Amino acid sequence: MTYLDHAATTPLRPAARAAWLEASAEVGNASALHGAGRRARAIVEEARERLAAALGAHPTEVIWTSGGTEADNLAIKGHFWQRRGADAARTRVVTTSVEHHAGLDPVRWLAAAEGATAVELPVDRTGVLRLDALERELAEHAGQIALASVMWANNEVGALQPVAQVAALAAAHGIPVHSDAVQAVGHVAVDFAASGLTSLALSAHKVGGPVGVGALLLARRARLTPLTHGGGQERSVRSGTLDPAGAIAAAVAVEAAVAERAAEEARLGALRDRLVALIDADIPQAWVSGPAAAGAHLPGIVHLIVPGAPGEALLYVLDSHGVEVSNGSACVAGVVQASHVVEAMGYSHADASSTLRISMGHTTTDADVDALMAVLPDAVDRALRVRAR
Ligand SMILES: Cc1ncc(COP(=O)(O)O)c(C=O)c1O
Prior knowledge:
Elements: E1 2-3, H1 14-24, H2 35-54, E2 62-65, H3 68-86, E3 92-96, H4 101-114, E4 117-121, H5 131-141, E5 145-149, H6 163-171, E6 177-180, H7 192-195, E7 199-203, E8 214-218, H8 244-282, E9 287-289, E10 301-305, H9 311-320, E11 323-324, E12 331-332, E13 335-336, H10 340-344, E14 355-359, H11 366-388
Parallel strand pairs: 1-11, 3-4, 3-5, 5-6, 6-7
Antiparallel strand pairs: 2-8, 7-8, 9-10, 10-14, 12-13
Helix pairs in contact: 1-8, 2-8, 3-4, 5-6, 8-11, 9-11
Bound molecules: pyridoxal-5'-phosphate.
C-alpha cells in the first residue's frame, strides 16, 4: 500500500500509542480529589505543559478539545458571542473563501442563525489571502467586526496564509484573530506567542496522534462564550470530563512533529520537488496548483488539477493500484464535489472537480513517490477517457 493522504490523517506514531496505552490504564477522573483523580490530573497537566512548550504557548492557554473541528467552532462562535454581547454593533465575521469547512461553516451558520454578516475575503490564483481586501474591510468596517478567522495553511492546495500580517492589521483595531493551524502544526514553524493570534486550532491526528483529540490555544487575556456548559473544566470554556490518555498522546505526537519539523521540512520538500518534476515531465495535462515558491506552501502537499478528468475516476484508478490519495474536497455518494478552494482561486467549476491531492508526511519515502508515479500517468489517461465517453 502507498499511503499519500497525510493531510486527511496520519499513521499513529508508536510513541503516541505507547503514551496513550500507559495513561489509559489509570482510572481517575481528572477533576476528582482522591489519589486516582490527582494521578489523572497530573497526566493532563504534563500534557498541557508539553503541548504548550512545543508551540510557544503558556500552559493555561491550552484548552483541550475533541479535535480541530471543535476548536474552530469554539473559537469562531465563542469570540462572536463574546464580542457581540459586549457591543451589539459587532456583527461582522471576517474569514477567507478557502477555509476548511470546520472554519467556514461556523461562520456561515452564524450568518444564517445569529444575524452575523459573513465576509469571505478573496484569495489570489495560488490560494493566498488578498491582504488588500482585508485592509479595505478594516478601513470600512473595523467598528463592526467581531473577529477575523484566517487559516494558517490550506488543507487542499497547501498555501500558507499571511497570518502574522493579518494579526498585526487586526490588532491595530483591537480585533481578535483566530487561526485554524490544523495543517500547519508540525509542518511549518508555529509559535503562538510570536504569532499575535488570539486563538489557534490544532488536531492530534494530523501529526501522528490519535483521532478525536486536539486543542484550542487561547490567549490568556481572551474571553470566549462557551459552547458546552457543565463542569466548568478548561477555564469554564469547554466543560466535559478530561481525557488524560488522549491529551498525553496528542502532546507526545505534537512534540515529536515539532522536534522533527526542520529536518522533515527539508526531507519532504525534496520529495515534493522530485514528484513535481516527474509530474511536469510525464503528465503534461496536469497543472500543479498553489504557490510555487518553497516557503510559500506546505512541504508535503502536491495539488493537481487535471482538466477534463473526473476527480473520483483518478482516485479509483489509483486506489485499484494500492495508491491512496485524495481529491482534497468533499465527496458525496462517490462523486467528488467541486472544491470551493479551487473555485475561489479562479478556476472553473469543472476544473474544481478534476483535482488530486497528494499529501506526504512522516512515513513517506522515495519508494512512495516511485509507486505513485508508476501508475499516475496511466490513471490520468484513463480518467480523461471516462470524461470523453
Ligand atoms: C485545515 C483543517 N481544519 C480542520 C480540520 C478538522 O480537524 P478534525 O478532524 O480534528 O476535526 C481539518 C481536517 O481535515 C483540516 O485539514
